[in-house]
TrEMBL record:
GO terms for molecular function: oxidoreductase activity, acting on the aldehyde or oxo group of donors, iron-sulfur protein as acceptor; thiamine pyrophosphate binding. Coiled coil: none annotated. It comes from the Bacteria. This is 2-oxoacid:ferredoxin oxidoreductase subunit beta. The keyword Oxidoreductase applies. InterPro entries: 2-oxoacid:Fd_oxidoreductase, THDP-binding, TPP_enzyme_TPP-bd. It comes from Phreatobacter stygius. The keyword Transport does not apply. Keywords: Oxidoreductase. GO terms for biological process: cellular respiration; small molecule metabolic process. Residues 66-214 form the Thiamine pyrophosphate enzyme TPP-binding domain.
Length: 351
């Protein structure tokens, strides 16, 4: 048996969402990851975000590659569609699924090995094509599943558990996603649920490629002194730019904040992101400034977290390709084989 089903008993007064579901309806099998693994906290944040947004579980498709991180979709959203693909190939499988049926909500879950090493090209193309998805990298700086080798996101100078120094320069997926035109870019930490849950909610409501790099310490192989992805290191070096509240039409937030410290961003679906700025001069709508800021924060040994970039007037792959709005399985034979006259028209248009 590769996974354990969770018993479904719950307290009769358990909280219900707008669909009448409890958070138990968003759970999956019992996790088999190491106790304390950051990835389990991210699973729990995903479940919380989907519960709070009242998303119908059967409208969500979760896709992953290979790794401890990529195993996690088994442990959440047990009633959603799921596809555990090949190492580094999640982005192309997700792109294909999304092209076939744009009506589902796509959640790609990957690791730093899965996305920054073997799947680096796949990651890049899914982001630049603006596939409508939430793409989460559970970033622990190692290949956890294969026993802790340095991954491509491991910082230069950081030490392995056995004391070996990493001499290679790191790949920062946040910087790459910004350069590739991602319209929602964030970084968070598995140990900061208050920051992570609203970020996931906002990403789920975003149209286009929403990327979240979530630092997620590996307690078995990368949580020691000398690592820059350990719980202690990230807590001590977390340079949060902002924290946010995700406000749907139904749940306005009334808390008072000092003038100039908040910024409301209206989204397509009528909801609002309320940014509480911790770094007052930071502008989430300035891609160039974001890249510059990331460079400076990294050079000072800190880790920039929060909502790093948002382009609300975004588009997605379907809009760019002008595809039919109906899913492929809803198209009839006459739609798929329009006949000789339509072919002649297309050919004439190419002459
Ligand atoms: C094609 C292929 N190459 C290599 C492997 C071996 N392998 C399995 S998981 C993994 C790395 C996983 O690292 P990451 O994506 O960071 O996930 P983590 O376990 O750290 O969450 C590797 C190299 C594989 N399964 N398939
Ligand atoms: S090996 Fe590391 S990444 Fe894998 S489950 Fe254990 S703590 Fe998590
Ligand atoms: Mg990893």
């Amino acid at each position: 048996m590769t996974y354990l089903a969770k018993p479904k008993f719950h307290h009769p007064a358990i909280e219900l969402n707008d669909l009448g579901f409890t958070h138990r309806d968003y759970e999956g099998a019992i996790s088999t990851l190491c106790a304390g693994c950051g990835h389990d906290s991210i699973s729990s944040a995903i479940m919380r975000a989907c519960f709070e947004l009242s998303l119908p579980p059967h409208r969500i498709a979760k896709l992953s590659g290979i790794g401890c991180s990529s195993k996690t979709p088994t442990y959440f959203l047990g009633q959603s569609h799921g596809f555990n693909s090949v190492h580094g190939r999640m982005p192309s499988v997700l792109t294909g699924a999304n092209l076939a049926n744009r009506d589902l909500i796509y959640l790609g879950v990957s690791g730093d090995g899965d996305s920054a090493s073997i799947g680096f090209g796949q990651f890049a193309h899914a982001i630049r094509r603006a596939v409508n998805m939430v793409y989460i990298v559970e970033n622990n700086g190692v290949y956890g599943l294969t026993k802790g080798q340095f991954s491509a996101t491991s910082d230069r100078g950081s030490k392995s558990k056995k004391g070996v120094m990493n001499a290679d320069s790191p790949i920062d997926l946040v910087t790459i996603a910004l350069q590739l035109g991602a319209t929602f870019v964030a970084r968070s930490f598995s140990g900061d649920k208050d920051q992570l849950v609203p970020l996931i909610k906002a990403a789920l409501e975003h149209k286009g490629a929403a990327f979240i790099d979530c630092i997620s310490p590996c307690v078995a192989f990368n949580n020691h002194e000398g690592s820059t992805k350990s719980f202690d290191y990230v807590r001590a070096h977390n340079a949060a730019l902002n924290s946010l509240d995700f406000i749907t039409g139904r749940a306005p937030i009334t808390a008072d904040y000092a003038e100039g410290t908040t910024q409301d961003i209206a989204l397509h679906d009528g909801s609002t992101i309320r940014l509480r700025k911790l770094s007052l001069d930071y502008d989430v709508s300035d891609r160039g400034a974001a890249l510059n800021h990331l460079y400076q924060v990294h050079a000072s040994g800190e880790i920039a977290t929060g909502l790093i970039y948002l382009e609300d007037d975004s588009s997605d792959l379907h809009e760019r390709l002008n595809t039919d709005e109906r899913p492929l399985n809803a198209l009839a034979e006459a739609d798929l084989i329009p006949g000789a006259a339509a072919l002649a028209r297309i050919n004439a248009g190419l002459r």
